[in-house]
Amino acid sequence: MVYLSVLRLTYNVSTKLYFSIYVTIVFLLQFTNISVSETYASEPFEDFPFLISCEYKGIHHAFYFSKLNPDGVATYINPSRLAGTISVGGTAKTLGEPIGGSCLGKTLEQLRTSGQARDLRR
Questions:
Q1: Residue 49 and which of 4, 23, 31, 102 are 20 to 30 A apart at CA?
Q2: Residue 109, CA distances (Å) to 6, 41, 82, 94 in order
Q3: How many domains would you assign to the chain?
């Protein structure tokens, strides 16, 4: 009988201890996420829009930011698997099949001015 009550007491203490440790970890992880977000905010992704919209043969396509190469060239792709590249100082070019469209040959500044480049707002 005494053995069972000691076991219950130990169980209750250890449960409370584990719960306290869990709550502390969850609380501290929130601050870790804030510092990680601030680190990513200063990356070169800020130079490129999240979405570029182009019109080709009467159809409007949405090209999403896909990757940034080490040489500073960003790749955009749409769900139809059409793709293009652009750099901060360069113009938009197609990848794969040679297609035209309203984005071809424009700079990022021209795409932003024409309303074709969309950034994510926080």
A1: 31
A2: 73, 21, 22, 18
A3: 2
Same domain, 89 and 58: yes
Which residues 6+ apart lie within 8 Å of 108 measured at CB?
47, 48, 49, 86, 88, 117
Buried-state track 21-32, b at ≥16 Cβ within 10 A, e below 16: eeeeeeeeeeee
**Whole-model pTM over 0.85:** no
Same domain, 56 and 111: yes
Instruction: Write the pLDDT tens digit of every residue in 25-48.
Output: 655 556 554 444 444 445 667 889
- The whole domain housing 76 covers 44-118
Residue 82 has pLDDT above 70, yes or no: yes
> Which tokens in the block code for residue 102?
């309203």
16 and 59, same domain (yes or no): no
CA-atom Rg of the chain in angstroms: 26
Examine the domain organization and report whether 28 and 70 are in the same domain: no
Q: How far is CA 116 from CA 8, 15, 60, 79, 101, in A?
A: 66, 56, 10, 17, 12
